[in-house]
Amino acid sequence: MARDGRSGVLTAMLGILAAVLLAGVGVAVTLIVMSGDDEPAAAPPVTETVVESVAPPPPPPVETEPAYVPPAPTGSAVVQGGPCFESEVRSFGTSADGQSLVCIYAGGDGYAWVRHAANSGEVHNIGDPCSSPEDQVAVDPSGRAIMCGGSVWTAGP
Questions:
Q1: How far apart, in whole angstroms, are the C-alpha atoms of residue 120 and residue 128?
Q2: What is the spatial distance between Cα 107 and Cα 35, in angstroms, rounded to a whole number?
Q3: Domain assignment of residue 71, yes or no
Q4: What is the residue range of 131's domain?
Q5: DSSP result, 101-123
Q6: Domain count, the chain
Q7: For 24-28, 80-84, 90-94, which range has the lowest pLDDT when averaged over its residues?
């Protein structure tokens, strides 16, 4: 029976050891489970697609044609005794019937187209000497009419 006594003690010890091991495993599992992160599990990565929207360019401005504005006259009608512009003074012109006329300042009446003596076509400077019996009408270096006023070339009467 001594053997039975030993074997009973041995069985009891093995039972206690098994109980301790089982308790240890239970504690270890509890610790592992409890020692995990207190944060919730991370969500799987999300792929975001960014679409950049570019507004189309604005339409070009609508061009409207300006109202017709007649151009400022650049020259007068060349008619003997007819009016001419200040900008035409000492300019030569030819009338519709072929007469060579020159625009002059006519005093209080403004500017007018008048007949002139024969144009020599020579070029002289105002103030240069001339001879009135021979020289009558010529042009200055700018192409404007000048006349012999006695003994020197002048811009007009």
A1: 15
A2: 119
A3: no
A4: 118-157
A5: EEEEE-GGG-EEEEE-SPEEEEE
A6: 3
A7: 24-28
DSSP the chain: -HHHHHHHHHHHHHHHHHHHHHHHHHHHHHHHHHTS-SSPPPPPP---------PPPPPPPPP-PPPP-PPPPSS----TT-B--GGGTT-EEE-TTS-EEEEEE-GGG-EEEEE-SPEEEEE--TTSB--TTT--EEE-TTS-EEEE-SSBEES--
Q: pLDDT digits over 11-49, tens only?
A: 777 778 777 777 777 777 777 777 665 555 566 777 777
Residue 80 shares a structural domain with residue 96: yes
Q: Does pTM surpass 0.90?
A: no
- Here the tokens at position 143 are 């192409």
CA 119/CA 146 separation, integer angstroms: 9
- Give me the pLDDT at residue 97, please: 93
Assess whether pLDDT exceeds 90 at residue 83. yes
C-alpha separations of 86 from 68, 75, 89, 100, 116 in Å: 26, 10, 5, 18, 18
